[in-house]
């Protein structure tokens, strides 16, 4: 019961991007297309789940004073593992995401969940929290990426969805588009919450 | 005092375990990654000079090996990697040349330019226009050359054109120096 709660809160109610406003740098940077959004979401979810589990397991051995450096070492190790494994076994995906993978280390969702949740709760709950937050992050990326790709390129996942006569608004896939779309979506979420 | 030594020790243990795991993962993935990179470049070379059956290294250019392309013992062309910093990233292009120093084909092998603008350089429509051209034409149409620039990405187009031009100049000089036209010096 509580597991479902820990899982589902990350999707909408405590969505890391729209509600908690965490991890905005990678959100703005990778959402130029849905494909990038999915790749980044999956990679970040994997790191988040792994780091949440490990940190909740070792939390009793880590003195409070050095918990942040310890968390960072754990997270950075997982990111490097993801980077190497992806480079070796999924070179095509790595080519598209290569630039963003190191960004996961500084993604504050992961450190934020380690500090706020995994460091205080048991393994099962931390796992559910990690999966939920990861999915929430992925969902947010896909929504932003989808809107930007449709407006900015007339495509969704690389397929044309708008008539060819549609002239893409390039600004949507450049940096201003990222800020505008995210800001409007955040406002919409606030409005719906009322 | 004792407390602080314990803090350092715990961090040390965490760091040692992490680096041990990373070293292990690296030892497994490194050969695969190197092999992937090598194969990727080999495929790019075959793509720009499909008639070649083997490649012989000629020189180093932009940190990559430039090759002489051979069809049995006959020289059919040369390949090199052109590289320059574009608008937001290093743009690397595999270039194939025939024996008269005309471009056979090019293939962008690495770029992280702006999606929707500069990144369009990896589309085949853009790359095809390079085929058959020589070094004097390696300039954007705005600057008097014959490369049609990508809409909204003149800087990227300029980068590619000038990286190829300077690469061709170096290759021409190198090839004249080594005097390969006789076709005898292939063993190395």
Write the SSE topology.
The complex is a heterodimer of chains A (194) and B (188).
Chain A (H helix, E strand, L loop, with lengths): L1 H7 L15 H7 L3 H25 L8 H23 L1 H7 L10 H11 L4 H31 L1 E2 L2 E2 L14 H19 L1
Antiparallel strand pairs in A: 1-2
Chain B lengths: L1 H47 L5 E8 L2 E8 L2 E12 L4 E8 L5 E8 L13 H5 L25 H25 L10
Antiparallel strand pairs in B: 1-2, 2-3, 3-4, 4-5
User: Cα-atom Rg of chain B, whole angstroms?
Assistant: 22 Å
- Could you tell me how far the N terminus lies from the C terminus of chain B, measured between alpha carbons in angstroms? 64 Å
Percent of residues of chain A in beta strands?
under 5%
* Helix coverage percent of chain A: 55-70%
Assembly state here? heterodimer
What structural class is derived from the secondary structure elements of chain B? Answer: alpha+beta
Average pLDDT of chain B works out at: 85
Helix amount of chain B, in percent? 40-55%
Give the overall silhouette of chain B: elongated
Question: What's the structural domain tally of chain A?
Answer: 1
Total number of helices of chain B = 3
Poorly predicted regions of chain B: 182-188
Largest interface chains and counts = A-B, 29 and 24 residues
Describe the main β-sheet of chain B briefly: 5 strands, antiparallel
> How do the helices and strands follow one another from N- to C-terminus of chain B?
HEEEEEHH
Distance separating the two termini of chain A: 26 Å
The side-by-side strand order for the widest beta sheet of chain B comes to 1-2-3-4-5
